[in-house]
Write the structure tokens for this entry.
Amino acid sequence: MRTFFDCRNTRFWAPAIFVLGLISPLNSYASSTTSLDLTQHWVGYASVVVFILAYLLVMSEEFVHLRKSKPVILAAGIIWLMIAFAYTQHGDQHTAEQAIRHNILEYAELFLFLLVAMTYINAMEERLVFDALKSWLVSKGLSLRQLFWITGIISFFLSPIADNLTTALLMCAVVMSVGAGNKKFIMIACVNIVVAANAGGAFSPFGDITTLMVWQKGIIDFWTFFTLFIPSVVNYLIPAAIMSMFVSTEQPEAMGGSTKVKRGAVIIIILFILTIATAVSFHNFLHLPPVAGMMTGLGYLMFFAYYLKKRKHGKGTPPSVVTTFPGSEISAHDDSAGDDYFDIFNKIKLAEWDTLLFFYGVILCVGGLGLIGYLALVSEFMYVDMGATNANVMVGILSAIVDNIPVMFAVLTMNPEMSQGQWLLATLTAGVGGSMLSIGSAAGVALMGSARGYYTFFGHLKWMPVIALGYIASIFAHFWVNSALF
């Protein structure tokens, strides 16, 4: 899952996107002398089959109507059961336990980071921030095609700062509001947002978890990442230009007057920006996990919620009207009955839990495959037999299928002898390769939840050829612009 914070994505760390927990088992156990090579054992074969079957169910969610979290959670349990059984048979009762504990710890960081981001988004939605933005955009007389470009460009330039998962969630909320049930527009606009957010995150050390990993390893310095700016622009513009030709030029239905945000909306936006700055600062200057900064930021929002509650105190009891918020099946008290009344825990429970639990399943599934030895095996085959350029191109393709974090960590673990240009190529492809499939990045996975019924796996798959065209073009752009680094 692919983002600096990867929701930072997810895959939030980022964001998909997927995910952060996948790196732990490789880091701690891949080179351990107590690890078993299960790649040619029945446990290894069975684990791969279980993982593939689970992902097939994820990809067919729109047809079988089975939430994507369910198959991967079950698959994770089965895979680790078999791994633990194999280690127990060899008299080792600790390695598998320690490995899964590390996975769960890393997932906890990702989970809390995502939960804070989703809480802020829900809070801004309830304060009518996105409705006001929709009203403003519509009042400008912009067509759907112009809105397509505006949301994509904002995603591209916001992603390097806020990470691709946070950016995708924010802009998806705007598109859902502006689209007003226009399924075709919402679908293609979400694809555009995913591509833009992943491309924007690829040229910043903070935009994607893979760029962060490479930067922390000391292979590429901070400012060298920005040499990927032009290839990232190419990666976004080519598919966007093609897709925009299929977006209607009609204008959204005019609204009956402007929408005003509720009291405290601007403060919440400022607190969200401050929360992101806190997370970045915690990591960059204090070397603390970014999730610590995000949870501190949740504290900002909680205290502000207390302030709004105190303002409401004495003006009446909390409203009892029940409503269902978009993208969630959880009902909650409708805060819209009063400008001041604001229940922070309503915002927390309205998070996209299917997405959060999906990340749990993916982290443990791929973490298990890493402990078995498959990820290291694939990485070695690529760099020994295929050569650096072919292998780095393949990194992006694998990132779309498996997730960019374990793939990139396997590359970093092997630490092949490569030029700066090749390391930048690996960083670029790992960052943008996930755009080819909706499940390939944290941004895509998150939008499958927040825009359920509109943005789907097969809806995204329809545009894979043009996204792949942008992927190939960005690689050539990198070789051309940064030729001196090879």
Notes: The beta strands are 322-324, 331-333.
